[in-house]
Amino acid sequence: MKIEHRFTDPTKDAYSEMDFSRTSSEIRNPDGTIVFSQHDIEIPGGWSQVAADVIAQKYFRKAGVPAKLKKVKEKGVPKFLWRSEADLEKLESLPEEERYGGETTAKQVFDRLAGAWAYWGWKGNYFSSEKDALAYYNEMRFMLAKQMAAPNSPQWFNTGLHWAYGIDGPSQGHYYVDFESKKLVRSKSSYEHPQPHACFIQSVSDDLVNEGGIMDLWNREARLFKYGSGTGTNFSSLRGAGENLSGGGKSSGLMSFLKIGDRAAGAIKSGGTTRRAAKMVICDMDHPDIEEFINWKVKEEQKVASLVAGSKLHEQKLNEIFEAIKCWDGAEDAACDPKKNAQLKSAIRSAKKVMIPETYVSRVLQYAKQGYASIEFPTYDTDWDSEAYVTVAGQNSNNSVRVTDSFLQAVKDDADWELLRRKDGKVAKVVKARDLWDQVGHAAWACADPGIQFHDTVNSWHTCPEDGEIRGSNPCSEYMFLDDTACNLASMNLLSFFKDGVFQSEDYIHATRLWTITLEISVLMAQFPSEQIAKLSYEFRTLGLGYANIGGLLMNMGLSYDSDEGRALCGAITALMTGISYKTSAEMAKELGPFNGFNRNSKHMLRVIDNHRKASHSKTDGYKGLAVKPIPLDAKNCPDQEVVRLAREAWDQAFDLGKVHGYRNAQTTVIAPTGTIGLVMDCDTTGIEPDFALVKFKKLAGGGYFKIINQSVPAALETLGYSGEQIEDIIGYAVGHGSLVSAPGINHDMLLGHGFGEGELKKIEAALASAFDIRFVFNQWTLGEDFCKGTLGIPESQLMDPTFDLLKHLGFSRAQVDAANEYVCGSMTLEGAPHLSSEHINVFDCANPCGKKGKRFLSVNSHIYMMAAAQSFISGAISKTINMPNDAVISECLEAYELSWSLGVKANALYRDGSKLSQPLAAALIEDDEELEEVLLEAPDGQKAQVLAEKIVEKVIVKEVMRAQDREKLPQRRKGYTQKAMVGGHKVYLRTGEYEDGSLGEIFIDMHKEGAGFRAMMNNFAIAISVGLQYGVPLEEFVDAFTFTRFEPAGMVQGNDSVKNATSILDYIFRELAISYLDRTDLAHVQPEGEHFDDLGRGEEEGKRNIEDVSQGAAMRSVEMLKQVSSTGYLRKRVPQHLMVLQGGVEGEVATGLADGTTGAVIDSATALSNSDIKVSSAIDDRTKAKMQGFEGDPCGDCGNYTLVRNGTCMKCNTCGSTSGCS
Fold first, then answer.
1. Residue 476 and residue 1209: Cα distance in Å, rounded?
2. pTM of the full predicted structure?
3. Are the CB atoms for 1055 and 1079 separated by under 8 Å?
4. Cβ(579)–Cβ(589) under 8 Å?
5. Each residue's pLDDT tens digit, 61-81
6. Is-catalytic flag, 418?
7. Is 960 designated active site?
8. What are the CA-CA distances from residue 1193 to residues 11, 301, 791 (Å)?
9. Confidence bin at 1185 (pLDDT 50/70/90)
10. Residue 752 phi, psi (nearest 5)
11. Which of 199, 464, 476, 788 is catalytic?
């Protein structure tokens, strides 16, 4: 093969025109411990920090790289392709710890990948001359460094380690076909022949323990999962439940074995580094157990809901029984007797109403008699990796059903559908096709599974039907071919070919040709995990070249994803890629011969190639062997006619060359999701997906993130004709100012008035750069638990509440928060942006609504039409999630499936927002909950607080029951104060009792030397008020009801510093309570501001805040301690000034009191508490914190950080770049 220098100069090094820079990569666990750290690494200039982290953490070889290398001469191999190994003599001169290390520069990675490909390509006779091999080597290194394309992750992990460094190890049970002898060989080395394949399809036979059977499949899957690969299997060959066994028994059925495989996959996962194994489970629609398979995940998620709700109700109700016993005031032996303890009787009845088993109720009573005071009943939540999900089955795979044209016709005709036994083919059951179809739609709507694979459509484009039907796919459904085959993938970054406003078609053709050769060489050099996969992969040589960033390219060009022009360009680019790839495959076949299965399948393959060719020429008829016609290339609407011309030319040449020479590969292209490698290439969008957000969070080298507009937005605005000033205004509208300085609604001046100091303001400002909502910045993790509890006076119970809104607690209105939010965080959408024309807004539509104000998003059909535009020119299939809004109905799911089939799409996976129990939106459940409504409705989709995750199972069951719970009892030992005064000459003693958070819970009233009747009446009145307070009646209600009441005794008040006159005893009592607990100074005759209770005023300090700004350190702890030991009412909700910490300094600092102007609390030196005594550990978990900070709430399997965001059907980590799917 002839290779030209297009990107590089043959007289210069491939990197000669590039800048490389030194940086550091560091990834930490949530607790701050370092997961990965590497300093002074060399990365191409312009790479983002995430791309640098991914290549450093995942793709740099960490050990075994010799510090000194020597070339190994090999006859017939050019010198620049000689492999290297450790130079042992030179290594001996180095200290032992310096002899071996890891890769430290991206150049090493690029060189070993391109070098190994060139080495094996030379040995396999893929290059016409040494000059061509050198050109290939340089061009591949250039494309990797420039982020123009990337292979799948196993290539980065394994390829070139033996060639570049001599790294080797014992065989791992792999096989390969020797390209010279053509014989199947068991590997003796782990790296000489690398394992570069990510995608596998495996078969299973209806046999329990023999090779190729059910239990053997779990073993084969384990080998793939261990090394991070994905696999898919069609299980339809397994007999259904109740079918006869050879021994005379009955089969337990398909589902029993699927549950075993699911549990095994969950234990292994993908090398232990992801949330789940990368696995696809497929079942045909005529299998006897198909109904159970369709509804499998629906029922399992119902079990999760039951576990979550049931566990929480058990914990709540059983502890209510304990509480009733603990609060019993009578004889001790009667506390556990419901006949005597009325509150206990009520608690038991309440437990029985929600079906708490009587056994557990009885057990709690027995515990209480033995002296136990509470029970820790394990509770579960709906997070994906929680114990609730681990308990149920079906969570470690993607499920799909295989649908035929005859089934879909039966659905249209409302006909019967026969479910067939697997062994004898007899009818096991007859169902209505439409009823079965409705079950599929409901399951997809309810839990996003199963997906659909259109069996007849897939097989009508099958290039090798003589060797059997295509029955399966890999986990993401882009690779569809024969069982027991593998595919290695690579994707090109389309945006890297867009320069000076023009798509560089010739560069794209050149890259496509080289990457097709690269993937073909990878088949030659590869080893495989089983004999059959090695044999068939060598026989058919399937490749998986694709692209990424079509969404970014279209936006840069000023084209809407949902437009005729956008779809036409996508179709043309796809047609050009596959046409060139098949042309290159035919050229390789001319030199090296076609794949082994070509001759027996030549008629079929040429028919398929001709159908692709006709579609590229925009033909509407003349297709052969297709029940569903493809979507032809829309040449008329394509904005780049040069791409159309070249695509048609490529298909003509591919067909003509194939007729003469055949093809080297049975398939050449797919469109993969490109999760991790998309991050390495800094792609805005993955695969064929549109963008998911216009505002992104870019990682900084030193840690943290800052908010930037999608890089495609300003380019698109410039293309659309906007001026630089207009573009700046539009971007500012989307991104915001990132500061509260001079913000409307909430700003620094306002916060100073609430006790914020310079330290807190700096913390707030530092966090705003990466905030999508200022409410997620105002929390205890930003401000510090001490400040929130001490200075702001927020009880710990509220801080631990995921729904707690600190700004609302400070008194800011929703309108103020909204105004500040838009100023600081921006709208995060372009809807309503200044200068932006309404005719251009669709260019910036994303898969989901953007920001809090965004309403626009791409329709379901726009996803399907884009897939259809590309599918006509893909030899495999397309991995894509079709996003649906939360309010979509079941019929819309079925319509999406039917539209996909009618357009020739091979597979369809729907994701209705909120369909997973672990990610509900719950919009319909919050209409009666104003506090939740503010949090939930304004946060972007997928960035809700943890309350979202529990709403479906908690809102109706748990919360409603809590409303009806018994009164809240006061602690056995409580704070309060006693106030003595004289009202109209009558002595009145008022005593209060407080809850732990300082709120009022009871009062006692005593009148000195009054008649028995009046004293008893006042005493019983106090009891009535106390009961009301404990049942939740606000003190404000009593204050409003009883102040200004008139009866004797009344008159002047003596002995109270704030109340000097009262119209009645009750007027006096509720004025006093209002002043002390509600800060109702409007009811006071003398403002309660003095340090001592005989102070009358503060001179020049009059009117200023009662509490000074506190410094970081001692003062805040002092305030907290003061609140712990002092009555809120006695202090009248104020913190006295000029108090001093005498001992027990906080956080290693000693407060100096008046000397440095700090405030503190007086603590006797003999009883001063140590730091450990006064610290309260945070009970809130990391998942809740992540939800409140805007992430999904699941931990990353690689680095442990709770920074996962949704990426199609998978998740990706914003800290380390990991994806939860296969490699």
1. 9
2. 0.77
3. no
4. no
5. 999 999 999 999 999 999 999
6. no
7. no
8. 53, 18, 30
9. low
10. -60, -35
11. 476
Q: Which of 138, 158, 396, 474 is catalytic?
A: 474
Catalytic residue among 478, 760, 934, 994: 478
Count other Cβ atoms within 10 Å, centred on residue 169: 12
What is the rounded distance in angstroms from the CA atom of residue 478 to the CA atom of residue 482?
13
More confident residue, 596 or 1049: 596
d(Cα 648, Cα 663) in Å, to the nearest integer?
A: 18
Tokens 């009555």, residue?
Answer: 1127
Distance CA 542, CA 538 (A): 9
Compute how many other C-beta atoms are within 10 angstroms of the C-beta atom of residue 372. 12
Instruction: Mention every residue, 6+ apart, whose C-beta is less than 8 A from residue 391.
Output: 303, 304, 307
Respond yes or no on whether the N-terminal peptide bond of residue 1049 is cis (omega within 30° of 0): yes
Is 476 marked active-site?
Answer: yes
- Look up tokens 């009344």; give the residue: 1050
Listed in sequence order, the DSSP H helices in 198-253 are 214-226
Distance, in Å, from the CA atom of 61 to the CA atom of 538, rounded to the nearest integer, reads: 28
CB atoms within 10 A of CB 9: 11
How far apart are alpha carbons 269 and 222 in whole angstroms? 8
Which pairs from 588-593 meet CB under 8 Å and 24+ separation?
A: 588/1, 588/126, 588/517, 588/520, 588/664, 589/657, 589/658, 589/661, 589/662, 589/663, 589/664, 590/657, 590/660, 590/661, 591/1, 591/125, 591/126, 592/124, 592/125, 592/126, 592/664, 593/662, 593/664
Cis peptide before 338 (omega within 30 of 0): no
Residues near 838 by Cβ (< 8 Å), separated by ≥ 6?
none
pLDDT band for 1046, please (50, 70, 90 cuts): confident
Average confidence (pLDDT) over 330-345? 90
SS3 of residue 726 by DSSP: helix
Token pair listed for 1167? 């009883």
Q: What Rg, from alpha-carbon coordinates, does the chain have?
A: 36
Worst-scoring range by mean pLDDT, 228-242, 437-451, 673-687? 673-687
pLDDT tens track for 361-393? 999 999 998 888 888 888 888 876 678 888 888
pLDDT in tens, 702-742: 555 556 677 889 999 999 999 999 999 999 888 888 889 88
Residue that the structure tokens 């009578």 belong to? 330
Q: In angstroms, rounded to a whole number, what is the distance separating the alpha carbons of residues 1122 and 786? A: 13
Give the pLDDT band (50/70/90) at residue 826: confident
**Distance, CA of 822 to CA of 852 (rounded, Å):** 9
Residue pair 1002/992 in contact (Cβ under 8 Å)? The answer is yes
Amino acid, single-letter form, for residue 1150: V
**pLDDT tier for residue 294 given thresholds of 50, 70 and 90:** very high
Helical ranges in 883-998 per DSSP H:
890-902, 930-938, 947-954, 960-963
Token match 């882009």: residue?
478
The first and second tokens of residue 320, run together, are 């209510």
Angstrom CA distances, 1182 to 31, 699, 1178, 1202, stand at 9, 20, 10, 7
> How many residues would you count in the chain?
1223
Is the CB of residue 279 less than 8 Å from the CB of residue 231? Answer: yes
Terminal-residue alpha carbon distance, the chain:
30
Q: Where are the beta strands (DSSP E) in 45-109?
A: 65-66, 69-71, 84-86, 100-101
Q: Would you give the DSSP letter of residue 966?
A: P
Output the furthest CA–CA distance in the chain (Å, rounded): 120
For 1122, the 3-state DSSP assignment is helix
The answer to whether residues 555 and 716 touch, using CB atoms and an 8 Å cutoff, is: yes
d(CA 484, CA 154): 18
Question: Measuring CA to CA, which residue among 783, 791, 725, 808 is closest to residue 754?
Answer: 791
Amino acid residing at 1093? F
What are the phi and psi torsion angles at 986 (to 5°)?
Answer: -110, 130
